[in-house]
Design brief:
The protein has 656 residues and is of the alpha+beta class. The protein has 20 helices and 22 strands. Strand 8 and strand 9 form a beta hairpin. Helix 15 runs antiparallel to helix 16. The chain is elongated and about 140 Å long.
């Protein structure tokens, strides 16, 4: 470090400048201090090394602009207008604002630059090489070693220039205070010389102990009393650590605090002067290392898992490594198989396929997955490209395991599915045939009952006329059920065709509400319509859509007690489609009830659901018809809170 040419330091400053100067000159970070007029006042050797300044370039009073201009001309800041860049940097520096940034040098190293203004003007800047973060601790230890060697050589020289350097006391202390690590310095009597803010933050030692001259014992006793060193007599624990510190020996260890944080502590003596210690929070690194250890343990457990065959092979077929399971599968020991050619142990056609998969993995740079059968057993295999060896031979990691049980299960599933589909087709055909057969006699029943109820061939008496009306009503109900069964059957076998036509949503809603109004009036239910006339025309099967809405409205009226309400609401969706919502204030359903209601022939067993008979096909049929339009049906309900059934038609159902 160069510091000649600066005199007039205030006397009586409380810091041992010889010791502080040695600390600064041998820190792993580069340090520079500029005055209020942007002239170099202080720097250390690491500052010169990190920037690769030529010998003799740096000197006291060197202007900040000259340093920036030198760096710009040698390409440190890339392709730029040198003088314009210098002016911009000088203007920024004159603001004396704290700053922190990273800069990549042309040689590839990355510098972390932290600058802070100093009391009375000027600024101090630290420079750290963060290219390889794991080298931080090693660099610090190296710095301490150099500190040990340099302190002794320069003690006499620093003593002779003590008066000259005392003027830089504030600069040196500010430098320590702005170091990213916690730092504390004790003299040969174990009295505190200086400690920065980070030290107290990391160790959680109260700031009240930041008093120059306080003894090291006070720190140790405080830590022992709060359990930092585990169980035991605090006074004895503190004494043991003080005795160890008096030996002034280098030390390096990681300390896990009671709160779980891990602090890396590195200390080195300054011969005849005391010792300096640094404290770095390595909690994240310690957790990462623990995770890596756990991952390695897990990987080993996976490799040793029964049934998992793992091999590392070269593209020439040579086995580089394998696990015990793979060796057993090849009928030999692990040592016997390493070095042998895996392809030579396979039939030619199998070897050719395996080699092709290995080539694909290497050339495409990603894992290749395949399954094949050997001796009646199925194996799932993955080949993953692996870094080439020192001879330049490409390698692949082969992981294989027996999946015969899965293939057998899949075969059984396919057979069961085929049987189920056949049974379903048989059931559907049966329902369609029976429904067709039932409609022939039903037509006669409906016709003759209507003749009787209307007394078309003469009076029959009040009782017989009522019987005729009952027979006709029951027949109509049975016909509706048969039609629903036929519709469900046709949808299931894919024989259902929609008749698409342009329809007004408002007119559709009016028509549906009129058809259920008589039933609603009889049950004392209020009907309401909220379908705007401004909704665009729809391209839908109007008859089937009306069937959907009538089913939903009929269910709403059916399950709503007298005095309740049923609302049909229509709205445009953000995705461009149209939604119809049937909202009632009825008895509601639970999640389990909803699942039953959506299943064919499912009926929710409540006290009110027998007011009107039904086969349990209304909701499933409505859902199927909505899905045939490309839409969907959702139910939101709570017991005693009513039900909202929503039918969504996609944007493709909107007329252009």
């Amino acid at each position: 470090m160069k510091a000649e040419g600066h005199q007039g330091a205030p006397s009586g400053h409380g810091i041992d400048m010889t010791m502080m100067q040695g600390v600064l000159d041998h820190l792993d970070q580069g340090i520079s201090v500029f005055s209020v007029d942007l002239r170099l006042m202080l720097w250390n050797r690491r500052f010169t090394e990190l920037h690769e300044f030529p010998d003799g370039f740096l000197h006291n009073g060197l202007e900040f602009a000259d340093i920036i201009r030198f760096n710009a001309r040698r390409g440190e800041y890339g392709d730029c207008d040198v003088e314009a860049y210098v002016r911009a940097r000088v203007d920024s520096a004159l603001e004396f604002q704290p700053h922190r940034l990273e800069r990549m040098r042309p040689n590839g190293t990355i510098l972390e630059i932290i600058g802070n203004p100093l009391p009375g003007g000027g600024f101090v800047t630290t420079y750290s090489d963060v290219t390889v973060s794991r080298q931080i601790a090693e660099n610090l230890r190296d710095s301490n070693d150099r500190l040990d060697q340099m302190v002794e050589r320069r003690t006499q020289a620093l003593r002779e220039s003590e008066e000259r350097h005392r003027a830089y006391g504030e600069f040196l202390e500010a430098t320590v205070q702005h170091m990213p690590q916690g730092v504390c310095l004790f003299d040969s009597n174990l009295d505190l010389v200086v400690a920065n803010k980070v030290f107290f933050e990391l160790t959680q030692v109260p700031i009240s102990l930041n008093v120059k001259g306080i003894n090291f014992h006070e720190f140790m006793l405080y830590n022992a009393q709060r359990g930092e060193y585990g169980p035991g007599d605090p006074a004895e624990l503190a004494r043991q650590r003080v005795e160890k510190a008096r030996k002034m020996e280098p030390h390096a260890f990681d300390r896990t605090r009671p709160d779980g944080t891990v602090i890396e502590v590195r200390g080195n003596p300054i011969p005849g002067r005391g010792f300096i210690s640094t404290f770095t929070d390595i909690t994240a690194r310690a957790k990462a290392e623990e995770s890596l250890r756990e991952a390695a343990t897990m990987a080993r457990a996976m490799l040793d898992a029964p049934g998992l065959l793992v091999l590392l092979i070269g593209m020439d077929g040579a086995i580089v490594d394998l696990n015990e399971e793979a060796a057993r599968g090849l009928g030999a020991t692990k040592d016997e198989m390493i070095g042998t050619n895996i392809f030579a142990a396979m039939p030619p056609q199998v070897a050719e396929r395996r080699f092709a998969h290995a080539q694909q993995a290497v050339f495409e740079g990603h894992a290749v997955y395949f399954e094949d059968e050997r001796d009646g057993r199925w194996f799932e295999t993955t080949m993953t490209p692996y870094p080439i060896d020192q001879d330049g031979i490409a390698r692949v990691m082969v992981i294989s395991h027996d999946v015969t049980h899965r293939h057998q299960a899949e075969q059984r599933l396919r057979e069961a599915t085929a049987m189920a589909q056949a049974a379903n087709r048989t059931k559907t055909d049966f329902l369609a045939a029976m429904s067709h057969e039932l409609r022939t006699p039903l037509n006669a029943i409906l016709g003759f009952s209507e003749i009787i109820s209307r007394e078309m061939f003469g009076p029959v008496g009040e009782r017989y006329r009522a019987y005729g009306q009952d027979i006709n009503s029951a027949g109509q109900h049975l016909l509706a059920m048969i039609n629903d069964i036929l519709d469900i059957s046709r949808i299931e076998i894919g024989a259902f065709t929609l008749c698409i036509e342009q329809t007004s949503p408002h007119e559709l809603a009016d028509s549906c509400l009129r058809l259920v109004s008589t039933r609603a009036e009889a049950g004392g239910i209020r009907l309401a319509e909220e379908v705007p006339e401004s909704l665009p025309a729809m391209l839908i099967d109007s008859r089937r859509t009306k069937q959907i809405l009538i089913n939903l409205l009929g269910n709403a009226v059916k399950f709503t007690p007298p005095g309740g309400s049923v609302t049909l609401r229509g709205e445009r969706q953000s995705a461009g489609g149209i939604a119809f919502h049937v909202i009632d204030s009825g008895i509601g359903m639970s999640e389990a009830d909803i699942a039953i209601a959506l299943s064919p022939f499912g009926q929710v067993d409540t006290g009110l659901d027998r007011r009107f008979e039904g086969a349990g096909l209304g909701l499933p049929l409505a859902k199927s018809l909505a899905e045939l339009h490309g839409g969907s049906l959702d139910i939101h309900s709570r017991p005693g809170k009513g039900t909202t059934v929503s039918v969504y038609f996609p944007a493709s159902c909107i007329a252009p």
